[in-house]
Amino acid sequence: MAAALALGSLLALAAAPFAIWHRMLGDILSSFSWSLSYVVAELTPWLLFLAAIAFLVPVAASVGRDPESRLYPRARRAYIAWGTVAYMLGLILALQVAEVWRYTH
Q1: Which residue, 32, 17, 27, 29, is CA-closest to 87?
Q2: What is the DSSP letter of 64?
Q3: How do residues 16-42 score in pLDDT, each as one tens digit?
Q4: Close Cβ partners of 41 (under 8 Å, ≥ 6 residues apart)
Q5: Which of 88, 12, 86, 92 is nearest to 50 (CA)?
Q6: pLDDT per position as a tens digit, 47-90
Q7: Measured at the alpha carbon of residue 83, what is the angle toward residues 31 and 3, in degrees to the nearest 5?
Q8: Rg (Cα) of the chain, in Å, rounded?
Q9: What does the alpha-carbon distance between residue 65 and residue 38 come to, in Å, rounded to a whole number?
Q10: pTM: predicted TM-score of the whole model, two decimal places
């Protein structure tokens, strides 16, 4: 039950930014260009969200497992910290990109 709740929470965390800013993300992806400024200015929040989810998957999958299990991540606290920080940075940057996007559309 705890593992299902953890994975459900992780799915909600993964889907929330994309559901909230789907129009903005659509505009960003439709103006794709191979430039460093594009990746840094417009894609960084979304890449941070994906990195955060990647860090939090082993944490959510290990909920309720025995710490001596081979499927229990040894650096679980580090994964939680990295996932939380990456998600918060992605959220802050997405809010800033949304403000700029709102003034241009």
Answers
A1: 17
A2: T
A3: 999 999 999 999 888 888 888 888 888
A4: 97
A5: 86
A6: 999 999 999 999 998 998 888 888 788 899 999 999 999 999 99
A7: 115
A8: 16
A9: 42
A10: 0.87
